[in-house]
Design brief:
alpha+beta, three-stranded antiparallel sheet, 17 helices
């Protein structure tokens, strides 16, 4: 008896394939058979379709929540306060070896540059194209507006110098709504899609951002009006194409501020996008509770009777339109025996079969505070803002509150770095190029070698520092860290106030000399205070965890 070994092997393989069990994510997040996952229909497309096609609606909803939701407002304002505060200021840090400068020469150059920058940046008419904000105010607007809308651009403009401003550089901030694809260039004429193509060069346009065949951003399309604007000064809607970089100087014409979520992403997403539904629902819930509590504040009573319901009087008790509520009359207003009125010292006799019932609704709902806090914790986690910081409620232990502040500060620091390299530093470099070209600042080799130019432009941006819950403990910890080499005096000085340690030392020399001249026995108090042991009863104002 002979066997077809090849056919038998094929039958065994097919049987094995029919009996193989799903493994890995097929029985987890990618399961199509589990009852709990069958209704979970998830579909994701390109960043352009997932983001740009929905950006307009997200901006409108995020903006409305910013204007109406206290929690949403807190999330945006907290970022603006911690990231920018009163404004980020540059501190030039030159490469002395590359530029062949002595420390004294570098310090003199830095001081002169800061003075020139302050003259330009401190006045709103010098730096803002519309003359409404100085550079610090523009930073605040950039942070808050880009978070609400997803992104924002600054356009470099050159205006005529004035007697009080030798610089022609101006920055115009343009809101995200005005960055859009022209109607005549959309892939679907007359449609609402954001995709388009430039007919002159074939470049694709993604919601107002034009990219070349390599995907590099080459230009932005800016509309002269807002898409939903009712009153327009111009009858004709027009778009202007602005190159991303100048072809002559290579300097940026556009400063685009946004946070990227995915590769190949050209437009930003509203910071509030992941929590829009939660913010909307929590606002509705708190408003309904507030309205219920308001209704409860009115003293409500009704008369129950055994007679025909159609005969029940439905008259409102009041003092009347002509009477003063602060001085009510001593008599009943109505002479009708079916009207019952409440007032100071009033005695009403009910009829046979009638009884009075007072309303006592259970408002606010039990657990309202706990429920709202749980939702706010989820919102804070999604926005990388701890609940304590989001609601400004620091009633936990010292350790818990410090941990919350440190966690929040990590997110603020990331956002500050993004603001610096997308807006502050590019503007500073454009300004410095003009200052050198005008001869107001000397920088040999600035326009000859890109490496030398970068060395002249290098700067650190200083701003608000992380708050302290217990300054004495933290100062002692920093002193210990300096003594062991974990930190430097310069680093700690920047962390506390963003100052310069060397400048502080020079100033302290002068102040100490004045103190010694005024009181030769002064001194030593600070060291004595630092060396004192901690008060064992001091727990930072709360239960120390």
């Amino acid at each position: 008896m002979s066997f077809d070994l090849e056919a038998l092997a094929q039958q065994m393989n097919m049987k094995a394939l029919r009996t193989v069990q799903a493994s890995g994510y097929s029985e987890a997040g990618a399961s199509r058979n589990r009852r709990s996952m069958k209704g979970f229909t998830a579909k994701s497309s390109s960043p352009n379709e997932d983001i740009n096609w929905n950006s307009m609606l997200l901006r409108q909803r995020g903006r409305m929540l910013f204007m109406s939701s206290p929690v949403a407002r807190s999330a945006i304002e907290t970022n603006r306060t911690k990231v920018v505060g009163t404004g980020l200021t540059p501190k030039p840090e030159l490469d002395l070896d590359l530029l062949h400068l002595t420390p004294d020469a570098a310090k003199a150059w830095q001081r002169k540059t800061v003075r020139e920058w302050t003259m330009w940046a401190s006045k709103k008419e010098n730096c803002d194209a519309i003359g409404m904000n100085n550079f610090a105010g523009m930073q605040q607007l950039v942070v808050s507006n880009s978070l609400v809308n997803g992104d924002l651009i600054g356009v470099r403009q050159m205006r005529d110098p004035t007697p009080l401003n030798p610089y022609s550089l101006r920055i115009q901030l343009v809101e995200a709504d005005r960055i859009s694809t022209p109607n005549t260039m959309r892939l679907i004429p007359g449609g609402s899609w954001t995709d388009g193509r430039n007919p002159k060069n074939g470049n694709r346009i993604y919601d107002g951002v034009e990219v070349d065949k390599h995907g590099m951003v080459v230009a932005y399309w800016i509309c002269n009006t807002y898409p939903n604007q009712t009153l327009r000064e111009r009858d004709k809607i027009e778009w202007k194409r602005v190159r991303a970089y100048s072809t002559r100087t290579g300097l940026p014409n556009i400063f685009h501020i946004m946070e990227s979520e995915r590769p190949d992403q050209y437009r930003g997403v509203s910071f509030l996008a992941p929590v829009i539904e939660s913010l909307l629902n929590i606002s509705r819930y708190t408003q309904s509770e507030l309205m219920a509590a308001l209704i409860q504040s009115f003293f409500t009573a009704w008369i129950e009777t055994e007679t025909n319901p159609a005969q029940i009087p439905m008259n409102e008790a009041s003092y009347g339109d002509d009477d003063d509520p602060e001085n009510p009359p001593d008599r009943n207003i109505s002479e009708n025996s079916n009207d019952y009125e409440m007032g100071p010292g009033t005695i009403n006799v009910l009829k046979q079969g009638e009884k009075i019932t007072f309303g006592n609704p259970n408002i606010p709902t039990p657990g309202f505070d706990t429920f709202v806090k749980v939702i706010c914790k989820e919102i804070g986690a999604a926005l990388n803002i701890p609940y304590d910081t989001l609601l400004k409620e620091f009633n936990a232990s010292y350790s818990a509150s410090r941990a919350a502040l440190m966690e929040a500060w990590e997110g603020f620091r990331i956002r500050r770095e993004s603001l610096v390299y997308q807006f502050c530093q590019p503007v500073y470099e454009v300004w410095l190029a003009e200052a050198v070209a005008l001869g107001r600042i000397s920088a040999p080799g600035f326009f000859l070698d890109p490496a030398v130019r970068a060395a002249w432009c290098k700067a650190q941006w200083l701003g608000p520092v992380q708050g302290q819950l217990d300054p004495t403990k933290e100062v002692k910890a920093d002193i210990l860290a300096i003594s062991k080499g974990f930190k430097t005096h310069e680093q700690v000085t920047r962390e506390y106030g963003g100052g310069d340690w060397h400048d502080n030392m020079e100033r302290l020399k002068e102040e100490n000399q004045v103190l010694r001249d005024a009181n030769p026995s002064a001194g030593g108090d600070a060291d004595q205070l630092i060396n004192e042991p901690d008060d064992p009863t001091d727990n930072g104002g709360a239960n120390n965890a």
